[in-house]
Amino acid sequence: MSDRVLLVEDEPSLARGLVDYLAHAGYDVRHVRRGDAALAAVRDLRPDVMVLDIMLPGRSGLDVLRDVRAAGIAVPVLMLTAKGDIVDRVHGLELGADDYVPKPFSVHELLARVRALVRRARRETRPVPDALVLGPVRFDFRSLTASGPAAAELTPHDVLVLRVLAGRPGEVVSRLDIIEDVCGLDSDATLRTVDNHIVALRRAIGDDPKRPHFLHTVRGEGYRLRLPGA
């Protein structure tokens, strides 16, 4: 089944272009042009992501967002804001928006952010253990700390990287996914940053990078965590 996107946008040419582009990317897209029709559309469609403009007839995007969150609906929301309008961006984030794109924007960027929100929502439904023991180190994912004879040099970001992998045991997790989970889509972190975290983790748990037991490199793809006993 295709992921569902609800687009709430009143500008006809922009809406047509976004509907076509998102549909071509494989999404099931529904478009409504009025803010006062958005909440009913959310309840009917149950979208995986809502792309919501702020300036709308009938009801503003900020009011729509307020209504959606007041109704207890946790759909990820990507706001479309006016370029340079910091007040609307901040207000939207405070009301529960998950991300924003200022107009004018690249459709490639919008698609990347939609995909990121879908991935994030899926990851948040995966259970992550409160703690994990690898070799001589115990990792506490609630406090983002590590304890053990070789854990003193580990940072909270090192532990966060392991937490991402622990949420998807046995799966190959790309370095881009790790960056997004640990630092956010707008982070300046590089792929090399992830590699450095893996080096620190391997050093602490005594994992030989040439013959790893726990943290495996999948060339050209990312990293995979093998749990103890697996």
Q: What descriptive keywords fit this protein?
A:
230 residues, alpha/beta, Rossmann fold, Arc Repressor Mutant, subunit A, 5-stranded parallel sheet, 3-stranded antiparallel sheet, 8 helices, 21% strand, elongated
Helical region count? 8
Helix content: 40-55%
Full CATH superfamily name of the largest domain: Response regulator
Shape, principal axes of CA atoms: elongated
Describe this structure in words.
- The protein is of the alpha/beta class and 230 residues long.
- The chain has 2 domains: 121 residues, Rossmann fold (3-Layer(aba) Sandwich), CATH 3.40.50.2300; 95 residues, Arc Repressor Mutant, subunit A, CATH 1.10.10.
- It has 8 helices and 11 strands.
- The strands form 3 sheets. It has a 5-stranded parallel beta sheet with strand order 2-1-3-4-5, with helices on both faces. Strands 6-7-8 form a 3-stranded antiparallel beta sheet, covered by helices on one side.
- Helix 6 crosses helix 8 and helix 7 crosses helix 8.
- The chain starts with a strand and ends in a 5-residue tail after the last strand.
- The model has no long low-confidence stretch (mean pLDDT 89).
